[in-house]
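Record type: monomer structure entry
Structure origin: computed from sequence
Chain ID: A
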Amino acid sequence: MRDPLVLPLAAVVAGILLGRLSAFSPSSSAWPIVAFLLIALLAAGRSCRKLAFASLGLSLVFVGVWTESWHQPPPAPQIDAGLRETVLLDGCVVDPPVFSLTREQFTLELDTDARARVTLPLDAVSPAPPFPALDYGQRVEIEARVRAPHNFNNPGSFDYAAYLARQHIYWAAVIKPGSPVRILPGRCGSRWAAAIFWLRQNAVRRIEALYPRDDYSSGMMEAVLIGETARLEKIWTENFRRTGTFHALVISGAHIAVLAGILIFCLRFCALPEITTLAIACATAWIYALVSGFSAPVARSAAGFTLYLVARFVFRKGRVINLLAAVAIVYLLCDPAQLFDASFQLSFLCVAAIGAIAAPILDLWLIPHAHGLRSITSVSADPHLDPRIAQFRVEIRLAAETLHLWTRLPSRGAEHVLAASLRIAFFTAEMAVISTVIQIGLALPMAEYFHRFSFTGLSANLLIVPLLEFVVPAGFLAIFTGWHWIASLAAWLLRISARVADWHALHEPSWRVSDPPLWLALAFTLSLLALALCLRHRIWRRTIFAVTLGLFALLLWQPWPAQVAPHLLELDAIDVGQGDSLLVIFPEGKRMLVDGGGVLQFGQNRRRTNLDTGEDVVSPYLWSRGIRHVDVIVATHAHEDHSGGIPALLNNFHPAELWFGTNPSPRLLEEARRLHITPRSLRASAPFDLSGARVQILSPPPGYYPKTPGNNDSLALRISYGQRSFLLTGDMERLPEFQLLDRDAALRSDVLKVGHHGSKTSTTPAFLDAVSPSVALISAGYGNSFGHPHPDVLSRLADRHTAILRTDQNGLIGVRTDGQRLWMDANSWHSAGSPRRLLPPGLEWALAQGW
């Protein structure tokens, strides 16, 4: 077999999946390994090769099961402290603040593999006493409020708590304002890690010294060269993401390849033996992996380089797929959870696509013809080549003779000119084929994890990747030498690559991909495997290639309808933390988003967060249901926790209209104008029909034009269907509530979206009596500093026997009605990892009118 390690890898992967889906213990999965190995040995002794191979494969399957069961994470450690309780913590600094923006955050190890991410309070960047400079290995004592990380609890959301747990970070701690950070005597940590952090810290300081007062160059260089992304602004990298070239910015295996290639060239130029050269390059690769933070892609690349060195040492030819399988087996046996990590999947699928699909395609035509250009003037070499290549060389010489007659160039000179031109053309074609294959090979995980496909990625990668590959050696040369002209050259190349990304982003269609159905994901995966096999054996290539392209087009197009129940009015309160975002789906299918969440930030010198709630929280939920378009987006008012995520939603879901009340955000209006979305300023009005339901704007009243944006600007809606109605109040406070009562507005509603996240400034008793809701939805952030929802509001609702559902406790909340009955659903009611059903049996609450 050409790549003998592929089948063992498949067996180990199958075992890990089986172990994840079953309840094997290490002991119960160990004895099948021994049993199947004994059967394999007995079968081999009796020349039963098929039974021996089958038994060996099953033993490897249970090796994967045992690995998965052995690496099950222990229960998360606990700290006996409430959300608002201040505790005294002491521990070891294991991630110094030099790697954090504005030096206000660091990681503290409280016990073995039990860490807290410590942050200074937002209004105390320069606390008294002054925040000390901290290094790796210092022991410190702090007073802080501690809480466990909390996910956005929606279907399709990123599991941030698990991501931190893989780094052994189980708490977020905020230092008490004015409290000192006391440095304790003694050192902690390992000397080896201290040396690595010393190198990283010095690299950061060198970069900042090379680019004084240039936040863009220093922040980008830190990310490109040593993998430090704390200072990256999302706006700097957005166009790289849109054009599918962000991988070239972050630390990856390509960095190892570039640096190792340059080092090998220099060492071979010094006449060092091949094995010695490879050994030095391999050691350098591991040192760079450590200095750059030992990120998974770089570590995998260094491991692959090591295996290649071993293969060359024993005089074996390295094969890409076999080498890839070997690295994957080692990594999965050490950490089976990597199989479910997006970075691992993208890295290995990228290399697998090149080795299994792109390489055979290139071997069929491009590479033989490119090799045929060698020694083009040597006619004596033609008889020893493949006939088609020999014919190709003859045609080149004939073309060169024609060029000689036209231009009077010497015949040999014309041959060399044509050969050089064709080499450039072949190289460009080769890069185009590789880039195209990578785009197709990674289409499924890109759709699943990032809901993107870059149509301009083909040409963008051809231009940007080489530019950034020049940035890497130039940047390191500037760090080692301190030469500012080299640093300026690296920064210039970086800015050129950014301009190329910007130009491509202008022509990149705003095309987002929703979660594909399971059958399509399986069919597309099988088609890629079949294509790889057919290319290797040179059979049915065109047929399988056409099938793969057809499934690829279907993956991008996705013409099937979204997961929406017909003839129901649906209201979903999406968990966006301390903010609001509501999805309304009307009985006849139209969709409305009311607010898009956002992050409130205070202070004049605060850096805008890289979390975009509209892009990172609301959009993934809609895509998980196959929703790619909404008809109306409503911005209730201009506060950031309601409208901050709307610009991304306008771009992602292309509504026909943007509704708002008074004091709309200028940023939203500008984005709507750019996208040709119709803005509609609404005030209190008579009810009107919309997609099978009745909608009434209750507030703000006509003639309401305050000078500054505020909560009372909120656009309040009442949506009725049959005998049921929903009341959505935004952040409306007491005054508009009393005004509605004075106008005798029709307020009676079955479902109330409680105003202002449950603040005591809203939801007055008289207003509640007029609405008389059966269900109250409260959108509030987990453990928020505002104390929302207020106990008085909860008490008022409880006194009126109103069912209370909260996003901070229940995650995403769904309410649906057919005009007669109400159904409620909450994400927290489902077991972890199970899909959320639209109308779950056993969770239906039929509410009688007036209940």
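Annotation 1: The chain has six domains: 6-70, 86-189, 218-348+452-507, 349-451, 518-557, 569-602+610-829.
Annotation 2: DSSP finds 28 helices and 21 strands in the chain.
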